[in-house]
Design brief:
Blueprint (H helix, E strand, L loop, with lengths): L2 H9 L18 E2 L5 H4 L24 E2 H4 L1 E3 L2 E7 L20 E11 L5 E5 L14 E6 L7 E7 L10 E3 L9 E10 L8 E9 L7 E2 L11 E6 L2 E6 L18 E6 L2 E7 L5 E2 L3 E2 L4 E6 L8 E6 L6 E3 L11 E2 L6 E9 L12 E3 L3 E5 L4 E5 L21 E2 L8 E4 L5 E2 L6 E2 L4 E5 L5 E5 L1 E2 L12 E5 L2 E7 L4 E8 L4 E7 L11 E6 L5 E5 L8 E3 L12 E9 L5 E11 L4
Parallel strand pairs: 2-5, 16-18, 23-24, 28-30, 33-35, 34-36
Antiparallel strand pairs: 1-8, 3-4, 4-11, 5-10, 6-9, 6-11, 7-8, 7-10, 12-14, 13-14, 15-16, 17-20, 19-20, 21-23, 22-23, 25-26, 27-28, 29-32, 31-32, 35-42, 36-41, 37-40, 37-42, 38-39, 38-41
Length: about 575
């Protein structure tokens, strides 16, 4: 397990992909401009240099666009095409806190909008009338309760909608009511170069609030009705009542029985479970104070689950920025710069050990390897799963071969065709045209693999034709490459996907990310590092995806870094739900 994965598990014991964005629980962002009283006449200070000609005032009635008159409304959407050419070249209204990462929003154009239906506003410049691409109009858009540079309440702000997309889209951070008057500002981003005037097409859609039980997007703005929260996994969730597991707390910080209102961000509180010391933990079950959720690869039926371990205790965190030292008799695997865990060090040969390395470390010259009963420290080269020796023969045990010609390697036995293999620690590999396919519970079966197709498959829309599960694919990732594959899942199952070298190991210098999307293209599960730098996801590890609907799904894999990932093996399998 890599340091980066462990830190993520420790620091993010509440998984963002499992819990919905909560309506009304964020801070009341204020724009409090002290940037330009000369130009606006609304009482601020000027950041731009004074010019001979006065700058146009953004909130002057003559410069504000009345969308009731100038916009075109069709159904619940209003559209307006304009330009920032006549706007002031300095930043008059301050941008809501956290919206811009450096730079300024200049050439601001204000628009007044009267709400007609209760709901949320989806405001966007990502339309045909906004020049697209990296050389297009780099817009910033936000909504505030009035046109005033002295300080207003923000209803949402967005700079760019995504990588390489300079248009902006936001959804209001609260419900709006019929008759409510709002100000929508479109501006040009000014960074290293001057903000150049350009046309834009603005759209404002009134989105009705979602009812109890309706599908929603937990990773986006909460569109559930008042008193409801969007809770789920990835981009797929449902609206549930505040106070229930994973939802926002009710008034007075109240939650359902057995749940606790816990702060999970700045002014954000959710109803979560509290685990007991040593108990199981996950995205909705937090550990007690002064303890952390540590991955536990030895738990039956939960190969990537976690267990609460007290800081400084066996398996607990230490080192790095934790300022935690280990209890007597334990050694920290981290250092001053890197977080580690407290382990029992120098475990003698033949004694029980933890193959994940979170709680024990075998004595020099031995490795924690599979034994007749569990795992014990065994002499390097003597057992399947032990480290290879530097001297030839690198593996002395009968029927063993080293996974590498030189350097670090693992001694492996070879399974018969269709036999059992080890997808977790690589102690049993497959021969010929077979690779180890994980069943999600620490075991695997040797299955024939198919080669990645020759065509382009680097987006979900271009994924290879759907194949039934189980599926094992042998492929290669170039720098910056993405490979996507469609699979067909039977009813009443979950999905396990694993990146490896096909024999339970992780290729040297490989660093992958996995994404699982449903038939509508929504991300429902992701994983970065699991086994070293190789990715592994199991939908059963999330309470909201333990049993998926039958149908087609897409598995995409990409490089986390920019290097090559040659000769990877992607194993995808349908697995029965855990009880």
């Amino acid at each position: 397990m890599t340091h980066r994965f462990m830190v993520a598990m420790v620091a993010a014991s509440v998984a963002a992909t499992m819990l919905g964005a909560l309506q009304g629980c964020g801070p009341q962002m204020m724009t409090n401009d002290v940037t330009n009283p000369d130009a606006s006449g609304d009482g601020g200070a000027d950041t731009g240099a004074d010019t001979a000609a006065p700058q146009p005032r953004v909130c002057d009635p003559a410069n504000v666009v009345d969308l009731a008159m100038a916009g075109m409304r069709m159904g619940t959407t209003t559209r307006y095409t304009g330009t920032t050419a006549n706007a002031a070249t300095n930043q008059m209204i301050a941008v809501p806190t956290g919206c811009l990462q450096g730079g300024m929003a200049v050439r601001q154009v204000a628009h007044t909008y009267r709400v007609q239906n209760m709901g949320f506003l989806r405001v966007s410049t990502a339309n045909m009338g906004t020049p697209p691409g990296m050389d297009g109009h780099d817009t910033v858009v936000w909504v505030q309760d009035r046109c005033d540079t002295r300080g207003t309440m923000s209803l949402g702000c967005n700079d760019d909608t995504g990588q390489g997309v300079t248009a902006s889209t936001l959804v209001s951070n609260r419900l709006v009511m019929p008759g409510q008057m709002l100000t929508i500002v479109v501006a040009t981003f000014q960074g290293m170069s001057a903000g150049v005037a350009a046309p834009y097409e603005l759209s404002i859609e009134e989105v009705p609030p979602l009812a109890m039980g309706a599908e929603c997007n937990p990773s986006g703005t909460n569109l559930c009705n008042t008193g409801l929260s969007c809770v789920g996994s990835g981009q797929v969730g449902r609206c549930v009542a505040n106070g229930s597991l994973g939802a926002a707390c009710r008034d007075m910080n109240m939650c359902d029985p057995m749940l606790e209102c816990i702060e999970v961000g700045t002014d954000a509180f959710r109803c979560l479970r509290r685990a007991t010391a040593g108990g199981l933990c996950d995205g909705v079950t937090l550990c007690p104070d002064d303890s952390a959720c540590i991955p536990d690869g030895m738990m039956p039926g939960n190969s990537l689950g976690g267990r609460c371990r007290a800081n400084g205790s066996e398996g607990g965190i230490c080192g790095g920025n934790t300022m935690v030292s280990c209890a007597m008799g334990l050694v920290c695997t981290g250092d001053d710069m890197r977080v580690g865990t407290c382990v029992r060090d120098m475990i003698a040969m033949g004694m029980p050990c933890d193959p994940t390395g979170f709680t024990t470390r075998c004595a020099m010259g031995t490795t924690c390897a599979r034994a007749a009963m569990g795992y014990t420290c065994q002499v390097n080269g003597s057992a399947a799963g032990s480290a290879c020796t530097d001297m030839m023969p690198r593996c002395s045990g009968m029927g063993l071969a080293c996974s590498a010609m030189t350097g670090a390697g693992t001694c492996r036995s070879t399974a018969m065709a269709g036999g059992m293999c080890d997808p977790r620690f690589g102690s049993i590999s497959c021969a010929g045209m077979e690779a180890c396919s994980s069943n999600g519970d620490g075991a695997g079966v040797c299955r024939a693999f198919v080669a990645e197709g020759a065509g382009m498959n680097n987006t979900p829309m271009m994924a290879e034709a759907a194949r039934p599960l189980p599926l094992v694919i042998r492929g290669s990732l170039e720098a910056g490459d993405v490979d996507c594959f469609n699979v067909t899942l039977p009813a009443g199952s979950g999905i396990v996907a694993q990146m490896s070298d096909g024999a339970g190991g992780c290729p040297a210098m490989a660093d992958s990310e996995l994404f699982l999307l449903d038939s509508m293209g929504r991300t429902i599960s992701t994983n970065d590092d699991a086994f070293n730098l190789c990715s592994y996801l199991d939908t059963r590890d999330n309470a909201f995806t333990r049993m998926l609907a039958a149908g087609n799904y897409t598995v995409c894999v990409r490089n986390y870094m920019t290097g090559m990932f040659p000769n990877y093996t992607l194993s995808v399998n349908a697995v029965a739900p855990r009880m």
